[in-house]
Design goal:
Elements: H1 44-57, E1 75-82, E2 85-92, H2 94-115, E3 127-134, E4 137-143, E5 155-160, E6 164-165, E7 171-180, E8 192-202, E9 210-217, E10 220-227, E11 237-250, E12 255-265, E13 280-287, E14 295-303, E15 313-322
Length: about 325
């Protein structure tokens, strides 16, 4: 070690400064040093202790490593090193990005579907059934059940206005006939089924033709009657009108009340009624074995004269349903 001038001249073999200053007598006068816990006024010895403690408390790193893997198969990793800096590049498979795009489009489509949908349907009376389905959801069919006692249909259910005439030959000739299943109209007690018909007939003197009206059920006639005597003894064409009203009094027991009104008219359309011919007739009686799912109405000419279709014909057969409102 070199020798320095101290207080003694010349330097001795024990080179040094005989007048040493203890560290506890040297004080730091600079700004506070927060990182090493030193403040202005601290002595030299305490500063050294503080530094020693700080250094001893430092923990050297152990097991520190950087691990980058790509074992998932959908992400690839590559790296480059330049100027001591390693850069890692992570690439996502196009399968993943395509799926993300597809899912995003699906979500947008669903949002469009939902925005035009129905949040809820609340009803104690509506019947809801599925009609069809699509990507946007199901199509529901809403039906309101027919209340008990209320018909599906009412009014005229059949109306044939075709002219149907007889031939010149004698014998029975069915001019109008119609089979109807009245279950379709929910017939219940008190309802009326009305059959109306009209036409023209040539009395042909003493051998006058007659009009026969019939109601059949299950292959059996439960009402039949004939109306004749349109003229006296002369050959006169007469028009006629008939109305049959069948009132259901007990549908389950297959019974009903039949009322028939028959009008005959002279050639000038005036009603004819004299002592020898019945031009007006009213019939009323109880009917049984009436199957309301199978009723046939028939208009028949009992043809005794030789008059043809131009003078003997049925013009109309009309059937209607009147519902009872109680």
């Amino acid at each position: 070690m070199a020798c320095y001038n101290c207080n003694n001249t010349p330097c001795t073999s024990t080179c040094g400064c005989p007048q040493q200053v203890k560290g506890s007598c040297v004080f730091y006068q600079g700004a506070n040093l927060s990182c090493i816990d030193v403040t202005k006024g601290d002595d030299y010895d305490s500063i050294l202790v503080s530094l020693n403690t700080l250094i001893c408390d430092l923990q050297p790193p152990s097991g520190l490593a950087t691990v980058v893997t790509s074992d998932c198969g959908n992400i690839t990793v590559s790296n480059t090193t330049a100027d001591g800096i390693t850069t890692y590049d992570l690439c996502i498979s196009t399968d993943i990005t395509d799926n993300i795009t597809e899912n995003t489009n699906d979500i947008l489509a669903l949002q469009t579907c939902v925005s035009g949908g129905v949040a809820d349907i609340i009803s104690d009376t509506i019947t809801i059934t599925e009609d069809s389905s699509s990507d946007c959801g199901r199509v529901l069919k809403l039906e309101i059940p027919t209340p008990s006692g209320t018909p599906s249909y009412a009014g005229i259910v059949y109306n044939d206005t075709t002219k149907s005439g007889t031939t010149g030959a004698t014998g029975d000739k069915i001019l109008k006939t119609k089979l109807i299943n009245f279950d379709n109209y929910l017939i219940s007690n008190g309802d009326e089924i009305i059959f109306t018909s009209n036409g023209q007939i040539n009395g042909d003197g003493a051998n006058a033709d007659s009009v026969k009206l019939e109601l059949w059920s299950g292959g059996v006639a439960f009402y039949t009657d004939s109306f004749s005597g349109f003229t006296s003894t002369t050959d006169v064409k007469s028009s006629w009108t008939a109305t049959i009203t069948l009132t259901a009094d007990d549908v389950n027991a297959q019974t009903g009340v039949v009322n028939v009104v028959f009008y005959a008219n002279t050639a000038n359309n005036g009603r004819k009624d004299n002592a020898t011919r019945n031009s007006y007739l009213n019939v009323n009686y109880d009917a049984t074995a009436v199957d309301y799912s199978d009723i046939t109405a028939k208009v028949i000419y009992v043809h005794d004269s030789t008059s043809g279709s131009s003078v003997n014909f049925a013009r109309q057969l009309k059937i209607e349903v009147n519902k009872y409102i109680g």
